[in-house]
Amino acid sequence: MKHYDAVVIGSGVGGLAAGAVLAKNGLNVAVLEKNHCPGGVANSFRRGRFEFEISLHELCGFGPPENPVGSSRRVLDALGLSDRIEWARVPEAYRLITFAEDSPIDAVMPFGTRAFADALESYAPGSRGPAEKAFALAGEIRRALSDLGRASGPEEKRACLLSHPDFLRAAGLSVDEGLRQLGMPERGADIMKGYWAYLFTDCSELSFLHYLNMVNSYIELGSVIPKNRSLELTNAFAGYIRERGGDVLTDSEVTRIMCEGGAVRGVRTRSGAEYAADGVVCNISPLSVYSLLLEEGDVTAFDRKKTNARELSGRGFCVYLGLDRSARELGLENYSYFIYPDMDTASQYRSAGSTATNLIQNTVCQNAADEEASPPGTCILTMTTLFSSDVWGGVAPEDYHAEKDAFAARMISVFEKATGISISHHIEEMEVAAPQTFARYIGSPEGAIYGYKAASWDSILARKLMDGKDSDIRGLYFAGGFGMNLNGYSSAMSSGMDAAERLLGRRDAR
Amino acid sequence: MIFDTDAKTAERDLGKFLSLTRDRLERFEKADPGKPQFPGGVNESQLVLHPGERPFRLLKKETSPNGVLFAHIAPSSGAAPVFRAGQQARVRVRGVTRPVFFASAPGEPPCLGVCVDGQLEAFAFLDALSAGDELTLNAPVGNFYILPPRDGADILLLSDRTGLPAVRSISRAFPPGSPTNLRVFCAGCVPEPFFDSRFTAVPDAGSLPERSGNERVFVCGSDAFSEAARERYSPVFVRSAVTDDPKRDRTELFTCTVFSPEGETAVPCSAGETLLSSLERAGVRIRSNCVDGTCGFCRCRLVSGGVSFRDPEDRDPRRRADIREGIIHPCRVFPDSDIVIEL
Ligand SMILES: Cc1cc2nc3c(=O)[nH]c(=O)nc-3n(C[C@H](O)[C@H](O)[C@H](O)COP(=O)(O)OP(=O)(O)OC[C@H]3O[C@@H](n4cnc5c(N)ncnc54)[C@H](O)[C@@H]3O)c2cc1C
């Protein structure tokens, strides 16, 4: 049986980051991927003249060359990959459109904390001060977290926490409560909640600290996309692993994690190949791992309960459009459009549980960040929404194509109505991905693309504070969108790096 | 100070902070201790939409006036295949796998069709089957289908003899009177029983009609037939499905050295056919699926040597990041010299 120091199950960016950090530290690693191409959703596909990005709208935590900080930078710089990729900067934060009859919003929000606060003031007078406070609070949160990381022992931690009262307050608030306590006018708060669908937990429940941290990262550092799609990131990671003697094996679906005496021993693939390994990093959901990959006898009651307690986050639905006119000709001036009926996020979250009522979307025009994203005279528009329930699970296979075409057509008409831009006569290429597509492609439960829901009890802070071990099984780690850091490229990469470091630490300890 | 806080509120906030982990732990403790269950729902229905290989049985064969073999089949067990009209099934008979068009509309008893002129090998192996024999179908493939939000209501559907199975499937899926208007022209064909008032049989590709209004042009036929349509109507309006492997007028033989996880081999390859055809003929284990360049299953790295690409640069089906890594799709390239590839 071939032996590896560590095996990674799944080659999404989380798994690849874990594999790369392990390879960097001299471990003999294999990343096993069930698909024919590594990357998970960090991938693209071609139709006619167009190459469509599967997932990435924007990568956050990747500061510009003059301010090279951020969580994505931390991972990519550590591996020397930042300069291997051609980046395009996203031009502005977002355009938020709501179409509630009483007070519709149409706001274009820029990057840069000052510019953002100015714009907010112009759309919602009285918002500048609270916005400035919010960004200051984000800085205070960062300082507090870093101090807290250095404090040891309960007494020191307690003292440290009490010396950061603003952080302590923010940690206990929801987004809605937090913005209210900062004195943000309602309209300003609505505009500031534009990014909520990125975390897909409604703002009455979503942790203010978490949300603010994310918003601040976007607004302060801006965001980027690889010009050659996220596949370029995938290829860079996979190349890095191979250059260091590691393997990235495709068409290798893991069907069993083998354990012995409470510790991992290796994995088996669908074709029957077995690989011995001292550590296993799972780049897939704990639910998949505990329900499908482990023998029942190897799993503790606590790990079972932990898995059963958690809720899935959004199930993905995307419409990929190649249009036969340039963005300028069509009047597509912005990069990222958040379109919501209104900003009552709790009711929007509920509405997103059904195809009849889900009207939210985040739509991206790739060409607004990179004119060369498609041939001259054309552009690419990608529409994404999320479902807060498994509604698509109730669609009979024989109705599937008609249902997804109809829902896609409605997303297109919602976009047209919200922006006043007519696109339906310019669709040259179109592809639709439903939760079924994601379930098949990445194997996620219910086609969830955002990992576990950041419910108030399962917030990022609660996850981090409990940290410790990933599993009762020794040598088993989790990385990626279903990991500690929640979903998103930067989070998935960071969680991959963290998982690798925990695995390495355990190795050193032995 | 950002919030209105004092020592007392800080103590209260600290209590709340400390309860974060306590609450989470409590949730865990209270949860069901049973074995976690992987969901059914979409995870199950995606298996029906994209099943792995499944056994089917041949019920009946018939040959049409244009030399099309229609094979009526039924799954040995389980649900009927789900596909879109115009898609192909990957069919395996005794170790050989070929894409074969569905000739039935979705929801009808499944029927496959292949023309003697087109995918010769596919024809040969379907022809070799008799009623009751088993064949294996994989998930449907191909992007040759009408998508109303994209294609609008007016479709000009063109085929040669080899494209008739797909034309049958599409015309039955969009019957007369449906919101999608079809005009169907079949070149070099005599009328088939399934032709209706929307069909016109024309002598050859030279007598195909003009495109009218906003019509999208769907072309199913040989590589040469599709190319001619692209030239005539502009590639922007044409969607095509090709029924034979691209060929080129050259005969040199080269050597292709293949590195794969299984080791190293060297096989002959011809300048006149796609690299994939040569590799398959030589028995190299290489995955493929759509064989028109889009799916990327046969994606591999060109280590050295020269190749010509079947597609013009603006329709190169490779992805940009892959091009930077020296990736090629063997189904869409012809070798120009001895080459080395890495699977
Ligand atoms: C439409 C969409 C838009 C998004 N937009 C953004 C965005 O703008 N910004 C952002 O930061 N994030 C975005 N995300 C989220 C981000 O893409 C993900 O959080 C991140 O890519 C998840 O990576 P991952 O490491 O969890 O792996 P995944 O990409 O989920 O990959 C998991 C891999 O494991 C493989 N696998 C599964 N089971 C097995 C098995 N048994 N054996 C072997 N391999 C297996 C799968 O095939 C897959 O390759 C988006 C996601 C989607 C889908």
Can you walk through the features of this model?
The complex is a heterodimer of chains A (510) and B (343). Helices cover 39% and strands 20% of the residues of chain A. Chain A has 510 residues and is an alpha/beta fold. In chain A, strands 1, 2, 9, 10, 11, 12 and 18 form a seven-stranded mixed beta sheet that branches. In chain A, a hairpin with a 4-residue loop joins β11 and β12. In chain B, the strands form four sheets. In chain B, strands 1-2-5-4-3-6 form a six-stranded antiparallel barrel. In chain B, strands 9-8-7-10-11 form a five-stranded parallel beta sheet, sandwiched between helices. Chain B has a five-stranded mixed beta sheet with strand order 13-12-18-14-16. The termini of chain B are far apart. Chain B is an alpha/beta fold and 343 residues long. The relative contact order of chain B is 0.10. Chain B has three domains: 85 residues, Beta Barrel (Elongation Factor Tu (Ef-tu), domain 3); 86 residues, Rossmann fold (3-Layer(aba) Sandwich), CATH 3.40.50; 90 residues, Ubiquitin-like (UB roll). In chain B, a hairpin with a 2-residue loop joins β12 and β13. The longest helix of chain B is centred in the N-terminal third of the chain and has 24 residues. Classes of the chains: A alpha/beta (510), B alpha/beta (343). At the A-B interface, β3, α4, α5, α6 and α11 of A face α1, α2, α4 and α8 of B. The site of flavin-adenine dinucleotide has 36 residues of chain A, from α1, β13 and α19.
Sequence of secondary-structure elements of chain B: HHEEEEEHEHEHEEEHEEEHEEHEEE
Structural classification of chain B = alpha/beta
CATH architecture group name of the largest domain in chain A: 3-Layer(bba) Sandwich
Please describe the biggest sheet of chain B, giving its number of strands, its sense, and whether it closes into a barrel: 6 strands, antiparallel, barrel
- How far do the termini of chain B sit from each other? 60 Å
User: Tell me, what is the CATH class of the largest domain in chain A?
Assistant: Alpha Beta
Helix content of chain B: 10-25%
- Mean pLDDT across all amino acids of chain A: 96
Number of domains of chain A: 3
Strand content of chain A: 15-25%
Radius of gyration of chain B: 26 Å
Biggest interface, and residues per chain? Answer: A-B, 91 and 71 residues
Largest sheet of chain A: 7 strands, mixed
**Number of domain modules of chain B:** 3
Helix proportion of chain A = 25-40%
